[in-house]
Amino acid sequence: MAMNVGPVGGTRDPEVMIDINTTPLIDVMLVLLVMLIITIPIQLHSVNLNMPVGNPPPPPVLPEVVKIDIAPTGTIDWDGKTEPGSIFWNGEAMPDRLTLLYRLQEASKQSVQPELHLRPDKASKYDLTAGVMASAQRFGLTKIGIVGSEQFVDE
User: Fold this and answer.
1) Using an 8 Å Cβ cutoff, are 121 and 115 in contact?
2) Quick check: is 112 in a domain?
């Protein structure tokens, strides 16, 4: 008892297609792309910022610059006398040490302390420069700088 299932030599049916049909896949992807483009909100070219309300801070006040020149022939007497023309405050000769101390005291009382640019001459005595710096420090002036220090470099 045998059963005949089909032709013995093979089948006449066409070969099975093993490639995927991409046409429906592309159609679905295009529909999804169109839906995405429609649902994205319109992009604005501006950026919304929450800016602070109020007055901006005032611009910083530049300090006054006071140039103190020390002449080479000056000597200072700690009793209050200096040689005339040995210390200059913005080009004005200080007649004595008390006038210099008064100017330093007035400068320390300002709301914005001035910058003191000390310019000692190479031939001036160290006592005079150190005395001016110590007096300025004693009055609470903190913005002190020595200008023209390149003259002290040995050649």
Assistant:
1) no
2) yes
Q: Estimate the crossing angle of helix 126-138 against helix 97-108, to 10 degrees.
A: 40
Question: Does residue 111 contact residue 62 with C-beta atoms inside 8 Å?
Answer: no
Mean local confidence (pLDDT), 86-98? 86
24 in a domain, yes or no?
A: no
Domain of 116: which CATH number? 3.30.420
Q: Supply the range of the domain harboring residue 141.
A: 65-149
- Residue 134's nearest CA partner among 116, 152, 148 is 116
Question: Is the overall model pTM greater than 0.70, yes or no?
Answer: no
CB 142 within 8 A of CB 112: no
Total domains in the fold of the chain: 1
How many C-beta atoms lie closer than 10 Å to residue 147's C-beta?
14
Place of tokens 């005595």: 125
SS3 115: strand
- Residue whose C-alpha is closest to residue 144's, from 99, 101, 113: 113
